[in-house]
Predict the structure.
Amino acid sequence: MSEESESVSAPVSGSEGITPDRLLHTGASDRPSAEDLVLASGRDVTPENLEWARRKLAAEGRSAIDKQLP
């Protein structure tokens, strides 16, 4: 198999940049972090958004990030 794809996520209105897909940690063996959930939801990484993501992950587990990604 060839190298990992260099595709990028579509920008969210008002975002400062585009997060490369390779930076969003997904997969059955990974435990998503609060930062992963914030990025997958298209939000900025701020203390408030990280706290939101921690609460979502604690309540919903991995499905919190699965709901954000296609």
Notes: The longest helix spans residues 47-60. The helical segments are 34-40, 47-60, 63-66.
